[in-house]
């Protein structure tokens, strides 16, 4: 970054002996603030969230067990609106993003609840709690800034589907760096035994589609027990429905070959809900 290079040069000049080139402290402070405003150290990532759906969503964020939380764990996003969160500036980071739908505050209890992907806190903030399935997940693991390592990211339907999602690197980057997405409407082709219908008794609209694991809990569908390895747990007729709608998304636990994406050096990631709208 040009500002960072200039800052280093001026700092060195201020410490050089026998030369009248010392930079006033006020100038250095201004440059440091400018450096921070423009993104700080190379490799620091930010996440930009866009709601391309025709309805509002309430974004949920969850950090990995060894990663610090982001500034917000949940927030409202109106149709066509965008919002940004910065990733931590040091160390690797992993986390998950999702959209909640049909959210409202119960007049009797004052609790905030959602029709899909509710995180169970009774509030807009998820506070370290994950979503209730079915839910479409955008998952990411960032390499530590300056390490030269790769970021890994994907869209997962292992816990079912509620809205289409895309996650894409931005701001440069090397390697493959393709978007990962589930842009198809799985709800429109969801098998009858996996459908989640709108709560209103007068409505039969499908608001989410369960995974077979969530619906039946069997080892075969959940890739657990004797089916807990890639060799013993392959696609099923249910997971193939998800795969046909979203070929680049995880349709079951060991669907790695076509569903894991990598990028190195990206300065940001765009997460878009309903990218095909």
TrEMBL record:
Query: What's one Pfam family the UniProt record gives for this protein?
Result: Thaumatin
Query: Does the record carry Signal as a key word?
Result: yes
Query: Which cysteines are cross-linked by disulfides?
Result: 53-274, 103-114, 119-126, 177-263, 182-246, 190-209, 213-222, 223-233
SUPFAM superfamilies reported in the protein's UniProt record: Osmotin, thaumatin-like protein
Q: Which InterPro entries match?
A: Osmotin/thaumatin-like_sf (IPR037176), Thaumatin (IPR001938), Thaumatin_CS (IPR017949)
Answer whether the UniProt record assigns the keyword Signal to this protein.
Answer: yes
Q: Where is the signal peptide?
A: 1-43
Q: Which UniProt keywords apply?
A: Disulfide bond, Signal
Q: Per its UniProt record, what PANTHER family does this chain match?
A: OS03G0233200 PROTEIN (PTHR31048)
- What is the designated name of this protein? Thaumatin-like protein 1
């Amino acid at each position: 970054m040009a500002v960072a290079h200039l800052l280093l040069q001026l700092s060195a000049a201020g410490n050089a002996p026998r030369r009248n080139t010392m930079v006033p402290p006020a100038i250095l402070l201004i440059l440091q603030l400018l450096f921070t405003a423009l993104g700080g150290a190379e490799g620091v990532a930010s996440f930009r969230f866009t709601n391309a759906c025709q309805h509002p969503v309430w974004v949920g964020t969850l950090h990995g067990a060894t990663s610090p939380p982001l500034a917000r764990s949940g927030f409202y996003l109106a149709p066509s609106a965008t919002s940004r969160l910065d990733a931590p500036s040091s160390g690797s980071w992993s986390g998950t993003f999702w959209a909640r739908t049909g959210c409202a505050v119960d007049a009797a209890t004052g609790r905030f609840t959602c029709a899909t992907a509710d995180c169970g806190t009774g509030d807009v903030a998820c506070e370290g709690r994950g979503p209730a399935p079915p839910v479409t997940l955008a998952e990411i693991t960032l390499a530590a800034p300056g390490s030269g390592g790769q970021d890994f990211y994907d869209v997962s339907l292992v816990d079912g589907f509620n809205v289409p999602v895309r996650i894409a690197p931005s701001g440069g980057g090397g390697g493959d760096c393709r978007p990962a997405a589930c842009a198809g409407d799985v709800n429109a082709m969801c098998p009858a035994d996996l459908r989640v219908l709108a709560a209103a008794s007068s409505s039969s609209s499908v608001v989410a589609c369960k995974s077979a694991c969530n619906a039946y809990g069997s080892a075969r569908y959940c890739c657990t027990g004797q089916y807990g390895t890639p060799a013993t747990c392959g696609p099923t007729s249910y997971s193939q429905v998800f795969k046909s709608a979203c070929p680049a998304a995880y349709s079951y636990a060991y669907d790695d070959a076509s569903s894991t994406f990598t990028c190195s050096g990206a300065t940001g990631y765009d997460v878009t809900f309903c990218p095909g709208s």
